[in-house]
Amino acid sequence: MCCGGRCCVSMTQCFFDYSTSKVLVIRSKSVGTLNRFCQAVVLAYIIGYVCVLKKGYQDTDTVISSVTTKVKGIALTNTSDLGLRIWDVADYVIPPQEENSFFVLTNLNITPNQTQTRCAEVSVDTGLCVCVNMSYCEILVTLCPGVQTGRCIQFSVTEKTCEVLAWCPLEKGNDPPDPPLLAEAMNFTVLIKNSIRYPKFNFNKRNILPHVNSSYLSQCVFNRTTDPDCPIFRLGDIASEAGEDFQTMAVHGGVMGVQILWDCNLDMPESWCMPTYTFRRLDNKDPDNNVAPGYNIRFAKYYKNGGKESRNLVKGYGIRFEIMVFGKAGKFNIVPTLLNIGAGLALLGLVNVVCDWIVLTFMRNRQQYSQEKYAYVGDFGLWWRHMNNVSNSHADSCPHLPEI
Q1: Backbone phi, then psi, for 60, in 5-degree steps?
Q2: From 75, 286, 339, 372, which residue has the greatest number of CB atoms within 10 Å?
Q3: Domain extents for the chain?
Q4: Which CATH superfamily groups domain 62-111+179-305+315-332?
């Protein structure tokens, strides 16, 4: 029993008591070296990798982008089908505008003066439309271009083919000219206008930088060493930076990738946020596994000839340029900073667990360390010590109970 307010005072003292763990200091060079090494590794990971390399103190956002392009250049061709002809942007950029890409014509096969009439099928190399009688052409209606009339007619002195209703004369399966007809395309230039936004940080920028004016833009060409800020690119230079020969690629066409990287640290000045350009070929050019190489499209130019509709069919080979924009921005934020600091402190606490395990498992004096580290006290001993302390502290104020 306790007297008066003495019991409340004792309970208040117990409430404000603080218990701490026992600290065992092991004076061992091997254990101390291991402990400091582990701590150094954890600190190097937190400071070097998490904070410096990965910028773990920043909040991040991914880029939102828009791209427009404008190609310029003139080419001259002289062929038996078209004669002397000038090619400008309206002729070789097909279609005039695409989203994040553009196609430039570099080579072509032309089938001129086609009209809708009847003619003999010309696919004699495949043998699909070679015929011997009328019934053969009626059976193979879907295998030959055009709509078959069911007639088997003379194609040449020695061969007959099925007659078709189509745009005649039919296109011949010729290989593209080598060297390419529009070899001048390597000197064409393209202006790439790219605007980006990081919505989380309300940050906007474009690749036409503030110091770029109209006079500079009218004469600059991108060069990684001398003029890296110019957004105008020569097509031949794009292929060269990707490790390709433009003239070889222009024969059958292909697909090129223009990659624009916006990695920005928004804790630094805005002028430090700059685009980085890289180029690579995207289509397959492996000669051992390339059945249909390059890139080509077909389009026609229609006109009236004596009141009758006619057209020039063009099988165009060219290079398709795909513009891909990537980026990530970071800015200081207290939440990821505290999360990474907390994770680092937890790792530092794990160092003690590892060292304790090694000391108590592998060290020569592990039995001694174990006895010093752990102290076992029974419940009775704790109760008896507590009762002695209480009796000594209250002996002068509390009456003794009668002994029985």
Answers
A1: -125, 160
A2: 75
A3: 25-56+333-393, 62-111+179-305+315-332
A4: atp-gated p2x4 ion channel domain (2.60.490.10)
Spatial separation of the C-alpha atoms in residues 206 and 274, rounded to whole Å: 9
pLDDT at 377: 58
Q: Give the C-alpha separation, 141 to 14, whole Å.
A: 101
d(CA 143, CA 166): 14
CA distance 271 to 210: 9
β-strands 232-234, 276-281: how paired? unpaired
Name, in order, each residue with C-beta under 8 angstroms of 343's C-beta and a sequence gap of 6 or more. Answer: 46, 50
Please count the CA atoms within 13 angstroms of the CA of 51 that sit on its side-chain side: 16
DSSP state, residue 98? -
Residues comprising the binding site? 70-72, 189, 296-298, 315
Nearest CA-CA partner of 256 in 323, 186, 183: 323
Handedness of CA 170, 175, 179, 180 (dihedral sign): positive
- pLDDT (tens digit, 9 = 90+) per residue, 27-74? 778 888 888 888 899 889 888 888 888 888 999 999 999 999 999 999
CA distance 170 to 321: 31
Q: Are 81 and 202 in contact (CB under 8 A)?
A: no
* Of residues 94, 88, 85, 96, the one with CA closest to residue 72: 88
Q: What is the pTM of this model?
A: 0.76
DSSP, collapsed to helix, strand or coil, labels residue 206 as: strand
For the chain, what percentages of helix, strand and coil (3-state, to nearest 5) are there? 30, 35, 35
Backbone angles phi, psi at 299, to 5 degrees: -150, 165
Q: Which residues are annotated as a binding site for ATP?
A: 70-72, 189, 296-298, 315
Number of other CB atoms surrounding residue 350 within 10 Å: 12
Q: Which candidate, 254, 335, 383, 306, places its Cα nearest to that of 59? A: 335
| H-assigned helices in 89-143 | 89-92, 134-139
Q: Please give the DSSP secondary-structure letter assigned to residue 21.
A: -
Question: Bridge partners of 343?
Answer: none
Amino acid identity at 136: Y
